[in-house]
Amino acid sequence: MTGATGQVALPVALALATENDVIAVARFKDAALRARLEAAGVRCVAVDLAHDSLAAVPADVDYVCNFAVVKSNKWELDLAGNAEAAGLLMAHCREAQAFLHCSSTGVYEAAGGSPQRETDPLGDNHRVMMPTYSISKIAAEAVVRTTCRLFEVPTTIARLNVPYGDGGGWPAFHLALMLAGRPVPVHPDGPNRFNPIHEDDIVATLPAMLEAASVPATVVNWGGDEETSIEAWCEYMGELVGVDPRFERTTSTIGGIPTDNAKRLALAGPTSVGWRDGMRRMVEAQTSSPQSGSPQSG
What we know:
Blueprint: H1 9-16, E1 23-26, H2 31-39, E2 43-46, E3 63-66, H3 75-92, E4 98-104, H4 133-151, E5 155-160, E6 162-165, E7 168-169, H5 170-179, E8 184-186, E9 193-194, E10 196-198, H6 199-211, E11 218-222, E12 228-229, H7 230-241, E13 247-249, H8 262-268, H9 275-288
Parallel strand pairs: 1-2, 3-4, 4-5, 5-11, 6-10, 8-13
Antiparallel strand pairs: 6-7, 9-12
């Protein structure tokens, strides 16, 4: 598992380690996170996928889950870390039974908040926030699709929407703004709708995502069943913490990217954590003992 110290992959690695031999590949700049993984029985291998050789990474593995993401806004670094690294990792672990590449619904062209299907147009919708993000993630999908066919590695490309959980996420970033008395930026074309997916459901649906791997690659949206909006989850979190959210309407943030989840439902079944229950749990965790994990969004 790559990116295992990140907000999305950390709870997945910890959950999988209870019944599997998990090898975590990351830079491990945070010694505390490495210690937490190792205490759970995870074997940690320090590698910078954007620059280093993969010689230290075991190749004889059953499954590969690529959660690594680079968001430096530097084109050379982000293309190397997101696109080139994914292909090199696939080639290195070409005998794996399945390869899961965690992509993003940030690859879709902005479409006025309509639910996006896997076959809908791609585009540079994150440009106003992260200039390199959408394009480098699209490039990564192209590299993964090619390498899948070249080495016949069964592959799933899962386009993650808004992941969140006790360890944080984009809604937790909004919560922090609210608690600091600052406005939450939202696109003028609201309500800004998404399909947030709780970390419990990411863990629960992962086995089916791996089982769906194929050649050519299976491409599937990875969002929760319930659609909501930034405005709605901020209002709800505000009720929980006694703060009235303020919103800043701006074109310098992304608009809504809800997902059509029919394909994921067919492959992995329904999600189980409703957004209100999930957000309440996140608020309780964040306001009692904030945890590490950078926010990620669709």
